[in-house]
Amino acid sequence: MTRTKLHLATCAAAALFAVGSQAASAAEPVQFKIPAQSMQTALTLFAKQSGMQVLFPYDQVSGLAAKTVNGKMTPEAALTRLIAGSGLKVTLSNSNVVALSMGGHSSRNRAVEVASLGVTALPFAMQAAGAVPAAGALPQAAAEDPANSTIVVTGSRGLARTVEDSPTPIDVIKADDLAKTGKPGLLSALNTLVPSFNVPARAGGGTSTVISTGGLRGLNPDQTLILVNGKRRHKTSLINAVSSLYNGSVPVDLDMIPTSAVDHIEVLRDGAAAQYGSDAIAGVINIILKDDNHGGSASFSAGQNMDRSDGEIFQADASVGTKLGEAGFADFFISAKKQMMSNRARAIGECTAVGDSDCLYLPVNGEIDPREATADRMVTKNYGNFPAEAITVGYNAGYELGAVELYSFGTFGQRDSQLDYTFRRPSAAESLPEVYPNGFRPRRNIKEQDFEFEVGVKGQMAGWDWDLSSGYGKNRSRQIGSLTINSSLGPTSPTEFYIGSLISSEWKTTFDITRGYDVGSGNLQVSAGLQHRRETYEVVAGDEASSALGTYSYVNAAGVTVTPETGGQAANGFTDEDAGKMARNNLGAYVDVAYDPNEKITIGGAVRFEHFDDASGDTLIAKLNGRYAPTPWLSLRGAVSTGFRAPGLAQQIYATTTGQFRVLEGIEDPVRLQIKTLPVNSAAAIALGAQPLTPEKSTNFSAGFVLTPFRNFTLSVDAYQIKVKDRIAITSTLTGDAVSAILVENGLSPYISAQYYTNAIDTRTRGVDVVATYRHNIGSFAKMDWSVGYNYNKNIITRISDNPPELAALGEDYVLFDRVSQANLTKNLPKTKFYIGNLLSIGDFSLNTRVVRYGEVATLQNQTSRDRYFGAKWLTDAELTWKVNDTLGISIGANNLFNVYPDENGIASAANGSGFYPTTIPYGFTGGYYYGRLTISY
């Protein structure tokens, strides 16, 4: 670069910041972190970090390279350095608007890009050479940013990047995107918007129906790390204990975060345990909270299922931002939701003869009981979504106090869930005629309280940015059984029990530092950190009567002596032996380095050491990633990493008994079993071969490319392989006389089956993600935003542990991980998922449509004759919005517009009138859902 060019750029930049008193604030020093990269994305980063609008000729800037800008300096100095040698010069400014043009070129009719606070990109045509409208005359935004200009902080410590320049694949989902899905929570919205994310309608039975849970890239939910504002989120106390999908996982409950709090979500689809710690095997979901200092919004939505007009959902959300003095902000959020029951069961047949399987009552004097004529034949009421009520509140605040910034955020949630269990017929031994002469439907109510509080301070010292924070999170679920009975205690048994409580907590303290160095013409970013975590998990015993092993027996109406099951029906409480508390400490340390020698190349690496003071021990893991852009429109990227996930405390001490239907050898209809989850260190589990749990270990490989061949179009393709060794899973359901004998020897009921957690298997996951976005205008009256996503994901089991000697001694019929358990990992989720989304905007109206194809799934049994396959389905969602004015918006929409159901070829239960559809299917089995929404902005 010549001295003349440098002088011109410097003078132009100096002139810019000398315009008027309104621009005086621009002279204040600002912390900049902009690596060498394409000029387009560098100017976007400059705009965000300086708080200014930057106008530039997009087409002429394409292919230019920006210089590294790293450190605290005035925006004048930063812009001078950024554009040095590029040929760009500042042509005009007004207040906080910067206009750039190419030296010696006219700007007439050139496309101009507006970078506003780093995230707004407003293309328009300049009407006169060198003329730039004043800030107040800028046209209204006609479209949101292309995805590749969105700035992300996940996956690259200390240095913000755009999605296009990230060396690992990241999806950015904005609050508006979440709202337009019409889904009643973060989890279900992500299921629609992220191709490799799958959320089952129900993961299984028991508390698995309550947990809001989903898996990334075919792995378990607890193999994805959840962050809020970059800080680790605590886990739920509930556990997928008796489930088909994600069995044994202990995830973070995303629906305990107010939807109104979300500014955007960054989904890192790559192993990141070396950067962020345990659990980040499949990737990271980072929820960024709103940080406005003014305004707000509120919305109310209501809808119901088309079929049977049930499953009503009412949801209200609100947020408000305000200033804290002259140097701070505070945002407050609230979300409330009420979900009603839906049911897709069918009435059973009439009782036409004594002994008919449709008869609910035992015969009376050899004749059909007269009550059969008036009995409700819709015996199943719970084949659908369960009722729930929830309210969540939160805040996000920050304050600049001299050279440091104080910040804090937190959430509090309360949710009441109602689980109605299978109908116990009047003829069942448990339906004592003195108490429930017409049978009963036992119920479990789960009352959850969940909160998270984080406080921190950050600043700069000796050239290093530092961040010290501490946070505490806790989830407590109190469980109560109602409309139930412990029939083994006889007619005097209570009909309501306190089942017990589960309590999970996590306290963490984190210290991070980062600094950028000029190395050659590029930037070297060095980051490091320490973290201490203390986790606790507690099981609190319930009422003694809820789990008592009574001996009551009686003669039923048929003259047969029967002995009921022991324990509360659907309310078998935690016993004193089940109760317990476990705690552990974790220390972690990491070093993360990223080097951008120029705008075309990024090389990154991280090393992390973790120490647990329990059996999880010590772990050392690492990651390498890189990006190379041979042309301005093509970049290649790849990563290799090792990772781990320490066993959840819940997986080590959780113990409960719950009922679920299982298909047993030689029996036509599924049989309801009382299944006991045994702690791995319990005498009964050890007698069945249990051993202490060890961490899961993973190896991740990924490679892909990003194409931006023309403006407003981005295509990314990323292939991946994830190997997980010693994966923690729950065993097969161990049932039969031999198992019962062992359970009885250890003081347990003879009427239960058993399972426990074990490092039973190794798995390999291979797949590919494809994401494309495109934005264009239709003449001068409309615009369209397209998004396309595709995921192919295949899980296989590469190793299954041999039966432990204790289990092998019971005979060949007992296996540690049976065919059903294997299929739930490899076959029970769609192998493919494809969607096409479109947002059409015309004036004050917008139409958001989305078509999603879910691939085939299978439910396999130990008896191959009972295998069932469910074909691929296309679902259509649509939402029409009318922006009445700047304050009010009205939307009507439908999820599953054409009322598509899974194939009706499941293993139905004639006795209960249910089981026609697979409950695990991601798009549900309750048909179309229609809704309306009012939105107010202020």
Give a structural overview.
The chain is mostly beta strands. The chain is built from twelve helices and 45 strands. The strands form eight sheets. It has a 22-stranded antiparallel β-barrel. Strands 2, 4, 5, 6, 7 and 8 form a six-stranded mixed beta sheet that branches. Strands 11-16-17-14-15 form a five-stranded mixed beta sheet. A hairpin with a 5-residue loop joins strand 27 and strand 28. Helix 2 (39-50) runs antiparallel to helix 4 (75-83). The longest helix is centred in the N-terminal third of the chain and has 14 residues, at 3-16.
Number of helices: 12
Distance between the ends: 50 Å
- What is the total tally of β strands? 45
What structural category do the secondary elements indicate? mainly beta
How would a crystallographer describe the biggest sheet? 22 strands, antiparallel, barrel
Tell me, rounded to a whole number, the average pLDDT. Answer: 85
Quote the beta fraction.
over 45%
Radius of gyration over all CA atoms, rounded: 30 Å
The amount of helix comes to under 10%
Low-confidence stretches: 1-26, 105-114, 116-148
Short description:
This protein is mainly beta.
Please outline the helices and strands.
Layout: H1 3-16, E1 30-34, H2 39-50, E2 53-57, H3 58-61, E3 69-73, H4 75-83, E4 88-94, E5 97-102, E6 111-116, E7 120-121, E8 124-125, E9 151-152, E10 161-162, E11 170-174, H5 175-180, H6 186-193, E12 197-198, E13 215-216, E14 224-228, E15 231-232, E16 262-268, H7 273-276, E17 283-289, E18 296-305, E19 313-324, E20 328-339, E21 388-401, E22 404-420, E23 443-461, E24 464-482, E25 497-519, E26 522-540, E27 554-555, E28 561-562, E29 580-598, E30 601-612, E31 618-631, E32 634-645, H8 649-653, E33 656-662, E34 671-678, H9 683-687, E35 696-707, E36 713-730, H10 737-745, E37 752-778, E38 782-800, H11 805-808, H12 819-826, E39 832-842, E40 845-854, E41 857-859, E42 868-870, E43 873-883, E44 888-895, E45 929-937
Parallel strand pairs: 2-5, 14-17, 34-37
Antiparallel strand pairs: 1-3, 2-6, 4-5, 6-7, 6-8, 9-10, 11-16, 12-13, 14-15, 16-17, 18-19, 18-45, 19-20, 20-21, 21-22, 22-23, 23-24, 24-25, 25-26, 26-29, 27-28, 29-30, 30-31, 31-32, 32-35, 33-34, 35-36, 36-37, 37-38, 38-39, 39-40, 40-43, 41-42, 43-44, 44-45
Helix pairs in contact: 1-4, 2-4
